Amino acid sequence: MTSARRLSWLGHATVLIEVGGARLLTDPALRGQLLHLRRQSAPAAVPDELDAVLISHVHHDHLDRGSLRLLARAGTEIVVPVGAKALVADLDFASVHEVQVGDTVTLGGGAVVRAVAAWHPSRRHPRAPEIPALGYVVDRVWFAGDTDLHDDMAALRGQVDVALLPVWGWGTTLGPGHLDPGRAAEAAALVKPRTAIPIHWGTYFPLGLARRHPALLHEPPQQFKAAAATVAPDTEVVVLEPGATWTDG
Q1: Residue of 90, 95, 91, 93 lying closest to 105 (CA atoms)
Q2: Per-residue pLDDT tens for 136-186?
Q3: Phi and psi at residue 137, to the nearest 5°
Q4: What confidence tens digit (pLDDT) does each residue in 37-90 have?
Q5: How many Å apart are CA 49 and CA 33, to the nearest integer?
Q6: Quick one: which of 86, 87, 77 has its CA closest to 107?
Q7: Which residues are CB-contacts of 26 (< 8 A; sequence separation ≥ 6)?
Q8: What's the confidence (pLDDT) of residue 106?
């Protein structure tokens, strides 16, 4: 279905993917505050007329029920990892699709979405069962979700034109299962997309800490771009600010 693609980064891991007439939104985090995290970038516009929402995993900054309530309406579907349906079943989405690695689902607007592996430990809370994290590929756009670096990413080589890669997080350090700028560049080297757009940076930060660590709100995408120039020189890195749009084709 490869066609003109329009990608708008709304902050954190939230990307509006417009392909072939379909409008998909990844991991919506649209509110000014999520738990102890305060939004540091401009407020996110709430997209309308969505065909579907794609959820990569169940952490609160990726499956935010408050944001999902703003989007749940007739005609909008939601895709979640197997085991996560109960977390969204009471919201007013047209349908809920539970998927696992290798599954494909055809959504409104004709978008065909394939679930791919992500390497990221994911529980809704510490005592909850683990629900595996996912990434998604639609129209040769790879939304990596949250993931660690893994050699098996190379299986996507030749299938991805545009990679939406996380390059940081929401605090001063990264826990297991995340990419920092250097490791994100290595992921780009494994997959070899034509274009990479860094996401998951500069949007949310714990209350009171942003003033003490301002560099972490700005430097990760530039560090990623510099590292990619060395290890993935054939990949063009496009750095967007929250709310900005990139168009291909």
Answers
A1: 95
A2: 999 999 999 999 999 999 999 999 999 999 999 999 999 889 999 999 999
A3: -120, 125
A4: 999 998 999 998 999 999 999 999 999 999 999 999 989 999 999 999 999 999
A5: 24
A6: 77
A7: 13, 14, 15, 17, 53, 54, 56, 136, 143, 145, 164
A8: 97
Which residues neighbour 242 within 8 Å (Cβ) at sequence distance 6 or greater? 9, 10, 11, 41, 42, 44, 202, 203
Tell me phi and psi for residue 31, to 5 degrees. -95, 160
Q: How far apart are CA 12 and CA 97, in angstroms?
A: 23
**Secondary structure element (H or E) that encloses residue 79, with its range:** strand 77-81
Distance between CA 165 and CA 196 in Å, rounded?
A: 7
Q: In Å, how far are 71, 105, 215 from 64, measured between CA atoms? A: 11, 22, 26
Average pLDDT over residues 228-237: 98
| 231 vs 128: CA distance, rounded Å | 38
